[in-house]
Amino acid sequence: MAIVVTDTAVMIAADGVLSKTTYGIRSSEKYCKIRKEGATFYTAVGTYGIPDLHFDVWTLASDAIQRSKTAVGIYDAVEPAILAKLPDVVQRSKIIDRANYDRWLTGIPVIAISFASFDRDVPIVATVTFTIDSTGEVLPPTRNTQHGTPGTAQNALLGYNDKMRLATASPTWGVQFLKDPTGFLQDMIQAEIDVANQEKRYDVGTPISILKLTKAGGAFEPGHEGACP
């Protein structure tokens, strides 16, 4: 997942695959990872839902948006809702998906959610990340708020992002992005898909969705709706 914030827009790019483990067997299906509630777009990585636990990250995120009066007020709405379920989510994965649980022990987020909106004509991205420590204990969530700033481009990279971090490591990455925002994001997500294919993983894959949000509203870039309706 890649998010870029400029002084006039937010762009969100995501792959289109959901990985599932059922009775120890992994599978994948096409999946939309960019959602909308009111004027706010939101996206997430990690564990999306466990029906047996009545846990659904999209519903909790949507409810938090509805309860929030400000763009950053969403933190106080969504964090308690996720934290109330997180110990059970972690324990469930420890039992039925040990490989995924072991990744979390290394600091890989259990869940990360980003919310993109405008406040007084300024684009804002609020990202909250939920992790566990090396013993499996749930840690306090971390927050990262990015406001659109003239002359700069900021990024938030969620999920598998080694290749994307390389692409944004150069001080001039923002200039490259502004030359062709859609192409830049397409290439970044595709690089992570290529790695997943090489490693024979099923958790990152096509189609790619790319959305642009301005103060006039948000829409998918033409031809880049991906798995999203």
Q: Low-confidence spans: pLDDT under 50, at least 5 residues?
A: none
| Helical amount | 25-40%
CATH class placement:
Alpha Beta
Portion of residues in beta strands equals 25-35%
The overall pLDDT average reads 95
CATH T-level fold name: Glutamine Phosphoribosylpyrophosphate, subunit 1, domain 1
Name the helix and strand elements from N-terminus to C-terminus, one letter apiece: EEEEEEEEHHHEEEEHHHEE
Distinct helical segment count: 6
Number of strands: 14
| Cα shape | globular
Would you give an account of this structure?
The protein has 229 residues and is α+β, with helices and mostly antiparallel strands. The protein contains six helices and 14 strands. The protein has helices at residues 57-67, 74-96, 98-105, 162-167, 173-179, 181-198, and strands at residues 2-5, 10-14, 17-22, 25-30, 34-37, 40-46, 49-50, 55-56, 111-119, 122-130, 142-147, 154-157, 209-214, 217-220. The strands form four sheets. Strands 12-1-2-13-14 form a five-stranded antiparallel sheet, covered by helices on one side. β7 and β8 (55-56) form a beta hairpin. The radius of gyration is 17 Å and the shape is globular.
Output the keywords:
229 residues, alpha+beta, Glutamine Phosphoribosylpyrophosphate, subunit 1, domain 1, 5-stranded antiparallel sheet
List the helices and strands and how they pair.
Layout: E1 2-5, E2 10-14, E3 17-22, E4 25-30, E5 34-37, E6 40-46, E7 49-50, E8 55-56, H1 57-67, H2 74-96, H3 98-105, E9 111-119, E10 122-130, E11 142-147, E12 154-157, H4 162-167, H5 173-179, H6 181-198, E13 209-214, E14 217-220
Antiparallel strand pairs: 1-2, 1-12, 2-13, 3-4, 5-6, 6-9, 7-8, 9-10, 10-11, 13-14
Helix pairs in contact: 1-2, 2-3, 5-6
